[in-house]
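User: What would this chain look like folded?
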Amino acid sequence: MGIFDKTIRAFGQLTQMAPVRLDSITNTVTGLGTTEDSGMYGEPTLGRRLDEIQLHKLYVMSDLAQRIVDEVVDDALRQGYTARPGEDGNSDTKSLRDGEIPEPEGLSISEAISDALKEARHLGGAGIMIQIKGTKDYSQPFVKGTKAEVTGLLVLDRTELTVCKRDYDAMSPTFGQPLSYTLSPRGAIGTTNSGYVHGMEVHRSHLLIFRGQRLPRSLRYNNDDWGDSVLQASWDRIRNFEQTELAMGNIVQRFEIATYSIDGLGEVLETPEGKSKILERLKLIQKTVSMVRAVVLDKQAGESYERSFTSVNGLDTIWDRLAHSVAKSARQSMTQLFGAAPSGLATDDESGRANWRKQIRSLQTTQILPALETYYERVHGGPVVITFMALDEATASEEANIKKLTADTRKLYIEMGAAIPLEFRPMMRREGLVTMSDEELEEEMEEMSLGDPDAMAPEGTDPAAGPAGGPNAPDAGGAEEDLEFEDEDPATDGEPDDEE
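Assistant: Here's the prediction, encoded as structure tokens.
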């Protein structure tokens, strides 16, 4: 134990004996912050840990658990992405620079990542094994920059991947991290046609690793380098909420209670046939209530029938408070988790949606983006650029406004001399604004200029009117000075002749 830990323990023992608390305000009159304060004895605890079977039951039986696990993953991949070659100077990259990298036929990395991420959030960890044609020994690292033919994507949860070797070199950038994993896919026994599968060693470069909720470094090391289930921290709130919902259902079922009184009921029940007589009488009352909507009673026997109602005031407030507690622990808004309208005056839940978009971007940046880059680098054989689409779908008016702003920005760059029109043509082609290639566009421009001299004239001008576009306009080269006036005599300074 270090000096710091010993000091903290000594302070803890001291505060248990002395009527003071070093980390809070104390009040000897009320007992706040002293040993008489009951709040001083509250301690954090790991509580009840959910095992794999319990997590499976919770996910299958609780719609809240399914939303907490799946919703953020579905929204992160819902709008899709684009994968384009990066700037590495290769010929293949130059030929594909304006287009997307095609994915191998029959494979879907999006579906594999979605499945693996949900498994990771559910159980704490998962992985995707990238199967490459011709590879027999997966214990050797993949050669970076090599273009490979991907034949399969095998999704595995944390129970099917265990750490085989770790990096114990303290000077290594991957110190403490797994170097390889032992592959034990569920249902695979012994060998298969492709080679030994169950228990074989797989280098981490052949795997896309996903982790659930972050754990401190020491706990993660003891947890085989996996994270925790996102349902663990929300379990107590989910349990309280769903048990309260069940209790509310029971309250509603007992909302109306009928009270039936019989004079001398105890004496009747003491007789051998008394119980059966009472039951027959109750059945008769129920039948009359359902058939004629009336109760027939024996007034002389002292029978009475009353209906009482259970109060349900405050149930909606309790439900709302518990639902907010679940949403807080799941880090989701009420609108996202429960589909409930936001409460309060003049609120549109914009702050909740903004926080939700931040969570989605965080998931895309920290886990989805590295996995996509690794996968497409294998497929393409070089650097790639992954771009996620906008999270929200724009309306027609918003799209038109965006196009107008984009066009104005490009026009400004051209007028400032910071860019030329040809530089925007690849982007305009991707946006669908230009359908012809550069070669087709140049050929059409040449045909227009050679076949029809008037085709290249500026818009709004008359080609027959001369360079300036008007029959009475002066010549641009100063031809106005060369005009001759036959009706004027220079000697008379423009006066008419006497003969006229």
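The first strand starts at residue 81 and ends at 85. If you want, I can go into more detail on any region.
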